[in-house]
Amino acid sequence: MKSRNWVYLFLTTLIIGGISTVIIGFGVKWDEYSSLFIPFNLVEILSVTLWLLGVGFIFSLISQMGFFAYLTVHRFGLGLFKSLWNAVQIVLIAFVLFDLVYFRYIAYGEGQPLSEYILPAVLILLYGMIIAYWKMKETNKGAFIPALFFMVAVTILEWVPALRADDKAWLLLMVLPLLICNTWQLLILHRLTKTANS
Predict the structure, then answer these.
(1) Contacts with 52 (C-beta within 8 Å, 6 or more apart), sequence order
(2) What is the pLDDT of residues 90-105, one digit of tens each?
């Protein structure tokens, strides 16, 4: 890939992460921020917007680090495991999803229904399958498992800081921009490299 394409990928992902976090931030914390609009307080609104934009840039950078780390791990996995690499990725997806449910429930779920901890894992898996299918349709059949691994396992690993905080608003505020940024990077890569094998 040409250097200008890397710059394009970096800047567009940064902007997408920032803007999506601003929108999601106001939505998730509307109870807290709605008072800024009535009466209209421009200075406070701009202050919150800039803060959310900065947080979104950080989320975008985390997403990009995860993406480039995965590209490296994927090549390493292909070289090490060869034809077994897809099976290894499926096992790792299952392991990460189990850990997402089990360890969060053990740490924070006392007295709460298990379904609250299963639901995020199921939703991430379903979303990952949709995006992986989309990637496969635009490239080739071999892209499904790697795309699913990136969208599920890598996103959950990137989400760990918010998972450790266990605050519902922060969980949503972080995971949604991560999913958006990861989706963008995954689906734009083959267009930038102009190959059906990405």
Answers:
(1) 21, 22, 25, 26
(2) 999 999 999 999 999 9
**What CA–CA distance (Å, rounded) separates 156 from 163?**
9
> 3-state DSSP call for residue 126?
helix
Report pTM. Answer: 0.92
Of the two residues 195 and 170, the one the predictor is more confident about is 170
Are the CB atoms for 157 and 96 separated by under 8 Å?
A: yes
What does the alpha-carbon distance between residue 165 and residue 50 come to, in Å, rounded to a whole number?
Answer: 23
User: By C-alpha distance, which of 153, 150, 143 is closest to 184?
Assistant: 150
- Which residue type is seen at 150? F
The answer to whether the Cα torsion of 134, 138, 139, 140 is positive or negative is positive
Residues in the chain: 198
Alpha carbon 69 to chain centroid distance?
Answer: 14
Handedness of CA 53, 56, 61, 67 (dihedral sign): negative
3-state secondary structure (DSSP) of residue 37: strand
Token pair in block for residue 196? 């059906």
In the predicted model, what is the mean pLDDT of residues 132-141?
95
Q: Cα(58)–Cα(139) distance, rounded to whole angstroms?
A: 30
